């Protein structure tokens, strides 16, 4: 089974790119982020015509997450993280899909740091860690997939010395990411590519994609029930080079039906 995450940076404006990639890659399940569309503007008909059932959590102009599936309709289990009823941002959606529990997320950017946006990021991360612990305790075959807005290590960022004051590379944020992994989650890309330079995001400015001056901020985390089923984990980086594309590239994993290999989380 092929499961992907893709920050589309505007689902309607980038719809031709999304549909082209879906046809080319044929993922079974996809988590989308940054829809930047209210509920009624999600392009459900076009997604359905491409062969996918969908659930989505939209918001006008900002945020927004969705789960697409061509292996059975997603059955929504959660919309928004628990822990803050005043939080109206559309950043988390969860569904049961074909025997898996999929949590699609868009973690806050947090800049400028310090400030209220950074405080919100840390608080949101704590809520994610608390909910993720419940998923681990349940024993469910679960995946957390999305734009985490975290570069976990220096391997995950071009010229890390330039990012020391950025919220995506802040020590508190990186520590929170590894506290999440320490619950038992496997970072799929790093499990299979422990030493490679891998990026999932390239800014539109300064010719970043051509220079391969990127960041790895889009992650797929596997619960212990799935870690042994991990067969492949890759980035469709060529999609970042398409016309009118997102500044992120799709990231995907392939899971086997049974235990095939032992995936190991690399230390930070």
Automatic annotation (TrEMBL):
Signal peptide: none annotated. This is Exodeoxyribonuclease III. InterPro entries: AP_endonuc_1 (IPR004808), AP_endonuclease_F1_BS (IPR020847), Endo/exonu/phosph_ase_sf (IPR036691), Endo/exonuclease/phosphatase (IPR005135), ExoIII-like (IPR037493). One of its GO terms (molecular function) is double-stranded DNA 3'-5' DNA exonuclease activity. The record marks 149 as: Transition state stabilizer. The keyword ATP-binding does not apply. SUPFAM superfamilies: DNase I-like (SSF56219). The record marks 218 as: Important for catalytic activity. Mg(2+) binds at residues 7, 34, 147, 149, 247-248.
């Amino acid at each position: 089974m092929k499961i992907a995450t893709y920050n589309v940076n505007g689902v309607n404006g980038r719809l031709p790119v999304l549909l082209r990639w879906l046809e080319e890659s044929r993922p079974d399940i996809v988590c989308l982020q940054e829809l930047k569309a209210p509920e009624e503007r999600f392009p459900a008909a076009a997604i359905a015509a491409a062969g996918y059932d969908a659930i989505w959590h939209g918001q006008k102009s900002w945020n927004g997450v969705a789960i697409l599936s061509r292996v059975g309709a997603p059955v929504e289990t959660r919309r928004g993280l628990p822990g803050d009823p005043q939080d109206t941002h559309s950043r988390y959606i969860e569904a049961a899909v074909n025997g898996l529990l999929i949590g699609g997320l868009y973690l806050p950017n947090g800049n400028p740091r310090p400030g209220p946006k950074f405080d919100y990021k840390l608080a949101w991360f704590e809520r994610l860690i608390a909910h993720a612990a419940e998923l681990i305790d349940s024993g469910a075959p679960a995946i957390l997939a999305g734009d985490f807005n975290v570069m976990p290590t220096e391997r995950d960022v071009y010229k890390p010395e330039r990012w020391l004051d950025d919220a995506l590379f802040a020590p508190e944020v990186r520590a929170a990411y590894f506290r999440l992994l320490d619950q038992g989650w496997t970072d799929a890309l790093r499990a299979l590519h422990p030493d490679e330079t891998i990026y999932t995001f390239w800014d539109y400015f300064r010719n970043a994609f051509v220079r391969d001056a990127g960041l790895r901020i889009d992650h797929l985390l596997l619960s212990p029930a799935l870690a042994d089923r991990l067969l492949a984990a890759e980035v469709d980086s060529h999609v970042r080079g398409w016309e009118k594309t997102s500044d992120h590239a799709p990231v995907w994993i392939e899971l086997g039906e049974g235990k095939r290999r032992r995936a190991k989380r690399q230390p930070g």
